Amino acid sequence: MPTETAPLNVKPRGREAVRLPDDPSLEQLRKQAKDVRDLARAGVPGALELVAAYHPKGAHPVTLAGAQLVVARHYGFASWARLKQHVEMIERHRRAPDEVEHAVGPADEFLAFACLRFGGDDSPHRWERGASLLAEHPALTRASIHVAAAAADEAAVRAHLLPDPSVASREGGPYGWAPLLYLAYARHDRQISEAATLGTARALLEHGADPNAGYLWHGLYPPFTAVTGALGSSPDDEHPHGFALAELLLAAGADANDGQALYNRQFGEDDRHLVLLFEHGLGRGDGGPWAARFGHTADSPQEMLRGQLWWAIVHDMRERVRMLVANGVDFLTPYAAPGGRPTGLRTSHARTPAQVAALSGHPELAGWLVGQGAAPPALKKADALIAAILAGDREATMRLRANAATAREERPGLIVWAAACGKVGAVSLLIELGFDVNALGRSDIPAEAPWRTALHAAASAGDVEMARLLLSLGADPTVKSAWGATPLDAARRSGRQAIVELLAPLAST
Question: Among 31, 80, 353, 429, fewest CB within 10 Å belongs to which?
Fold first, then answer.
């Protein structure tokens, strides 16, 4: 079921729309509107100010319809009808495959085990269970087109299509997917041939299957499409013929601006997905049918690629940055405020890509961007200090050290990012300038959130040199992350045996 939408904040925020909660509930939105109506009628100042901010008639005791308009505009929609249509579209396409625990019958059981579902238990062991079920019940492909598609049994798929071509798009199985999705997300048999995979896809497409078929994972945008499934999140979990299948789908009309595929694969160094998607129109057009369904709430192709550039810069992925710039991604304009969408750019508001590179600790990348025509990264004094620290530039750091207090206030968890990047010199400089070695911060991006310590970051990465340095500087191995894990727990979870051997004796003292 959709998660509950939080009560509407009656403190107005001018006319700035706020982001609709993830996986919104129409029932909860209706309740919010009733609350606004009742509070406004009771004369509650905050409610009246909210009405004044979003209702054309200003502050007054609104009717339910008026309150619904206020709620809709609060979330950036022109009317309640538009908001309702948007939420109903989410509910129509929402799926939660990772929540399916019990499948009824061997066909659904096979499909539930055979497919990548981006849940916590995706694993070869699960997929092997699916393969065993199909081996035990080979006739399942004749009983279900969804099984036939997942098994890449072209003959069985065509047999299903012959009497009723409409089944090519029929949703079903344990996840409520169209057959093309089961084909793209199947992982149970690494020996399935490319010919069988592509033949099955062609059979479905020839009979009307939508190459843009997809679903909203837990109601979240962007969609998990057939292309998303084919490409997976890394070479380890992509379909055995994922790139060939994705190319076939793209040639058949799948939109190359696949935000979820971009996100899933952004964490690794492999850029083959970008090569393929750029060949088929990534960064061009209007975003395709999914963007049309979700209108102004969907990132444009250009916004998606700007987000990819940000991620690549932050993580010093120089080849990816070069590829993105070569394909026309804007590397000159400052990053604008993200408008409430979860783009990951909030900490980069009004900073250029070159400034982002400098503040992430990558001066060489910043210099390359300048060489391509970007303006040199002008930084205020505290930011200049942070850039100098992360670059390991002691001379510049000492020259700017008067700004250390401001830097500590703005980036208290900076040491976590420095440790995650393996910047030994930067960690030493931070301690010298009074940063807390046990501060909680983020290690995935250079932003502030009380998640884990620098020692957690080193433990997860298996960086023994960094871990020893942090311990020598006073790092406490008993500090727990926001999820209740110690650095030793993090090392064990990541399989970092050398770190386990380093920290285990300290945990028992």
Answer: 31
Q: What tokens were used for 258?
A: 């696949």
User: Do the beta carbons of residue 411 and residue 386 sit within 8 Å?
Assistant: yes
In terms of Cβ atoms closer than 10 Å to its own Cβ (0-12, 13-18, 19+), residue 43 is exposed
Q: What is the mean pLDDT of residues 249-270?
A: 97
Return the pLDDT at 7: 53
- Answer for the pair 451, 443: CB distance below 8 angstroms, yes or no: yes
Task: Write the pLDDT tens digit of every residue in 334-393.
Answer: 997 443 333 344 455 689 999 999 999 999 999 999 999 999 999 999 999 999 999 999
Instruction: Please list, in sequence order, all residues whose beta carbon lies within 8 angstroms of the beta carbon of residue 115, skipping any fewer than 6 positions away.
Output: 97, 130, 150, 175, 182, 185, 186, 187, 188
Span 21-42, average pLDDT: 96
The stretch 385-409 carries a mean pLDDT of 98
In the chain, the amino acid numbered 74 is H
Q: What is the mean pLDDT of residues 96-115?
A: 93
Write down the pLDDT at residue 345. Answer: 43
- In sequence order, which residues have a C-beta less than 8 Å from that of residue 251 and are 6 or more positions away? 280
Helix boundaries (H) for 296-403: 301-314, 318-326, 353-359, 363-371, 381-390, 394-399
The SS3 call for residue 415 is: helix
Model pLDDT, residue 344: 42
d(CA 208, CA 42): 56
pLDDT tens-digit series, residues 150-183 = 999 999 999 999 999 999 999 999 999 999 999 9
pLDDT mean over 257-284: 97
Query: How far from 417 is each of 162, 276, 318, CA to CA, in Å?
Result: 58, 32, 19
Cβ contacts of 287 within 8 Å, gap of 6 or more: 255, 257, 298, 299, 300, 301
Residues 6+ apart with CB under 8 A from 140: 106, 107, 110, 134, 147
Q: Rounded CA gap, 178 and 392, in Å?
A: 53
Strand partners, 505: none
Cα–Cα distances (Å) from 166 to 159, 161, 191, 209, 492, in that order, read 13, 7, 29, 8, 50
Distance CA 327, CA 334 (A): 18
Residue-level pLDDT at 286: 94
Same fold, 97-258+269-281 and 382-507: yes
- Is 97-258+269-281 a domain of CATH 3.30.750? no
Yes or no: domain 382-507 corresponds to CATH 3.40.50.11710: no
170, burial (CB in 10 Å: exposed 0-12, middle 13-18, buried 19+)? middle
Domain residue spans in the chain?
A: 26-92, 97-258+269-281, 303-371, 382-507
Q: What is the pTM of this model?
A: 0.91
CA separation for the pair 351, 404 (Å, rounded): 21
